[in-house]
Amino acid sequence: MIDVTPRQDPFLEHRRLLFATAYRMLGTVTDAEDILQDTWLKWHDTDQATVRHPKSYLVRTVTNLSLNRLTSARATRENYVGPWLPEPLLTTPNIAEETELADTVSTAMLVILETLSPIERAVFLLREVFGYTHAEIADTLDRPEPTIRQIAHRARTHVQARRPRFDTDKAERDHITAQFMAACSGGDLNALMDLLAPDVTLWNDGGGVVTAARRPLHGPDHVARWLLGVFAKPVSAGFELESAYINGELGTLACMGGNPGGAFTYDIVDGRIQNLRFQVNPGKLKGLYLSPDTLG
After folding, report:
1. ∠ CA(289), CA(293), CA(294), 5° rounding?
2. Under 8 Å between Cβ of 156 and 148
3. How far apart are CA 257 and CA 155, in angstroms?
4. 19 and 62 in contact (C-beta within 8 Å)?
């Protein structure tokens, strides 16, 4: 038997890149892993000796499979119960230190990408995140290069118009995260309200599986009282808040017995939390159990 090592198998060599592509395309860990499985099957059913550029072939396969999955998923998400949020993913602190990389996988960015059409999302990611040329993208998606240029311009303009302004100072984010956990754990309404921006909005994704707010909540008083009400419920007894790097940024996990039961991600503007996202759908927490270095 031949001992196949990651360096000898292009799929294993580029697996982190392939997962990163699928995850950014779909916003879900489960779907991204399914795409990788389908890609692996296609790769090993291919006459690999005829593939001149394995990396390009694999990225093309992942992108097109993700496009198909995303197109069908959009109809499902239109009937989703309550706000739909991406699946959170644990990441390493070093990703958070690389501002551009952290931004492309942040929950805020994934939410914006949801507003693009599937083809716009694919073109934007290949161009702006992974640095492919328009010609390479045209070849990957089997579209004329002028068309790709138009799509890339439209998608970039769309994202730039919606990209939130938020602070990236690590010390400040560390401090606010610690205060947020203390206020929630201690039931301190005033302290929690002081941390929230005047125009704060909270989105809570329970997917109809667990109790969650089915509409976005607005304003410091409404958001703070709702959060403390959640932590005061008997079902929340035993939950402990822990800081963790989630989607490239320091966030907060709600854990019971060391197992994550929810994840908070947020944008910080002028020293206060402006956008707060609380993912509690049990079917969308798989990424909190993966190794933090999964994302390339």
Report:
1. 65
2. no
3. 43
4. no
* Phi then psi dihedrals of residue 143, to 5 deg: -130, 155
Give the pLDDT confidence of 179-238 residue by residue, as tens digits: 999 999 999 999 999 999 999 999 999 998 988 999 999 999 999 999 999 999 998 888
Q: Count other Cβ atoms within 10 Å, centred on residue 169.
A: 11
**Helix spans in 114-165 (H):** 118-124, 134-141, 145-162
Could you tell me which of 189, 183, 184, 223 has the C-alpha nearest to residue 203? Answer: 223
Give every strand in the sheet of 272-279, ordered side by side: 217-218, 196-205, 272-279, 259-269, 249-256, 240-246
DSSP 49: G
Q: What is the pTM of this model?
A: 0.88
Tokens of 11: 């799929």
Question: What does the buried/exposed string (b/e) look like for 87-110 if buried means 16 or more CB atoms within 10 Å of the residue's CB?
Answer: bbbbbeeebbeeeebbbbbbbbbb
- Report whether 242 contacts 260 (CB < 8 A): no
Taking every pair of Cα atoms in the chain, the longest distance, rounded to a whole number of angstroms, is 66
Q: For 153-176, write each residue's pLDDT tens digit.
A: 999 999 999 887 666 688 999 999
